[in-house]
Amino acid sequence: MSGKRRLLNNELPELEKLMAMVGLENKFSGNATLIGSDPIIYSPHKLSEAMSYCLLLSGICTAAIWEKRTGKTVNLYVSNFNALNYLHSSHYVSQNNKLMKIGVENVPVNGVFKTKDNRLLMTIAGPPYMKLLNGYLDVFKCPNTKEAYAKEVAKYNVDELENLLAEKGLPACRIFETKEWLEHPQGKAIKDLPFIGIEKISDGETVPFNTDPKRPLENVNVLDFTHVLAGPKSGRVLAENGANVLHVSSPKHEDTKPQHLSTDIGKKCTYLDLNLKDDRDKMDKLLQDTDVFVSSYRPSVHIKLNLTAEDVVCKNPKGMVYVTINAYGHTGPWKDRPGFDPNGQVATGFCADEGGKGNLPKISPVMYLGDLITAYFASAGMQVALLRRAEEGGSYHVKVSLSQSTMWVQSLGTIDFDKLDGLPEKDTYKPIMETFKTMYGEIEQLSPCVKFENMPGYHARHIEPYGASDATWFDAKELK
User: Which pLDDT tens digit goes with each residue over 197-250?
Assistant: First the structure.
């Protein structure tokens, strides 16, 4: 559980694989160090190491941009205990000494329910989002209690209900075993794809970074059109490193305040109703100077709002990095289906493996998995694509998904259950916290997990309500 492993000593092969996947060869001259190893929590999966690799990968991408802009070599390191905390960072956010709780676990329709054919089906309406909660209750015509809901689910076979709910735009997925998932049409469609896809989609002139920056991502405009956790968190990572991140949302579809305080620090936030011509015109004007456009909405939303890659990247004559985040991957019969982090866990066989052979499936011991892994995968893909735009020009499509991120964690291998005896079943390790004052009062959250040498580290303290700012670009250096 202790000890240090270093990239330059070839002691982090899984990190090297990720770097090769995104094309970081010869772009990073420094060293990366991981302190500690698994297991440190009662899980057969290498959770702390997985999060550590993701944090280091994203940090290496930032360091590579800093090296490109300044010529300075950067070293970075992370502790796996801190990384485990970061895997569920939203559990550590307080406002004026009041812990912020999203409350997903208290929603009756959230959970695993038995179907008529004795299968287990996961449904989830989020914190809840009322559109989803009402959608489930409308399908079953039942009260909002777990008992009444379970009784209705039990009237259907799993295939029938899974498809019915998907047609209604409601997250639903049976619990698969890993082998079963890999033989399913959706599992087959994505099993051989890169966990972080970066596709060049058009040519163009190079867009070099300016030199002598104060922050690694200074002068990079990121239009953050995301919701829930993975998408907004990926934008926050870029904001922490100096990017100008503008979060765009509809006044009709806000995330909860606990989610907001966890993911939107360092950004400005604006409202746009893209069904209104004036607001759509504002969006198109923003896109003219957007370097990175990131969305975590389903493909049907992009089509409806004319925000597909083809619609968006042509707006900026310099080219653009276009990022999409979804539940089950960007190809295959389930590519349009909605889903949250737990859906990715049950689909891929992760939960079945967590429970162990012959036992009931279990969710991640810290609840989260795909959201934060995917967020850091997305942030890495964005930054590599920016490097490529600087060196060879063009526009790029970065593709990540909750299910593929979960499958990557599975690819790291598992630990025998007999080696887990005595380990905590929850994350009981003392987090390293920090506090700062905002317009919401005093915010407490996890302290930066990745430490950098020879590069300005994490710095993001500004937080504002949804819709507080105009839909215009700004300079992040002005934020306090």
Answer: 999 999 999 999 998 999 999 999 999 999 999 999 999 999 999 999 999 999
Whether the pTM exceeds 0.90: the reply is yes
Query: Residue 128: is the preceding peptide bond cis (ω within 30°)?
Result: yes
Cβ neighbours of residue 36 under 8 Å, at least 6 residues apart? 1, 2, 3, 48, 52, 79, 80, 81
Query: Quick one: DSSP state of residue 419?
Result: G
- 423-467 per-position pLDDT tens digit: 999 999 999 999 999 999 999 999 999 999 999 988 889 999 999
Quick one: CA dihedral 339, 342, 346, 347, positive or negative?
positive
State how far the Cα of 480 lies from the Cα of 421, in Å rounded to an integer. 47
Q: What is the pLDDT of residue 307?
A: 98
Residue 2: its pLDDT value, please?
A: 62
Q: Which residues contact 16 (CB under 8 A, 6 or more apart)?
A: 7, 10
Q: What is the identity of the amino acid at 87?
A: L
CA dihedral for 204, 206, 210, 213, sign (positive or negative): positive
Instruction: Please state the rounded mean pLDDT for residues 5-24.
Output: 97
Distances in Å between the alpha carbon of 111 and those of 29, 174, 253, 315, 449?
Answer: 46, 11, 23, 42, 31
Contact 360, 381 (CB under 8 A): no
> Cα–Cα distance between 415 and 262 in angstroms, integer?
31
Instruction: Please report, for residues 287, 354, 451, the alpha-carbon distance to residue 458 in angstroms, rounded to integers and kept in the order given.
Output: 27, 33, 9
The pLDDT tens digits for 124-155 are 999 999 999 999 999 999 999 999 999 999 99
CA 50 to chain centre: 14
Strands 292-295 and 221-225: parallel
Element counts in the chain: helices (H) and strands (E): 17, 18
The dihedral region occupied by 409, where left means phi > 0, alpha psi between -120 and 50, and beta the remainder, is: alpha
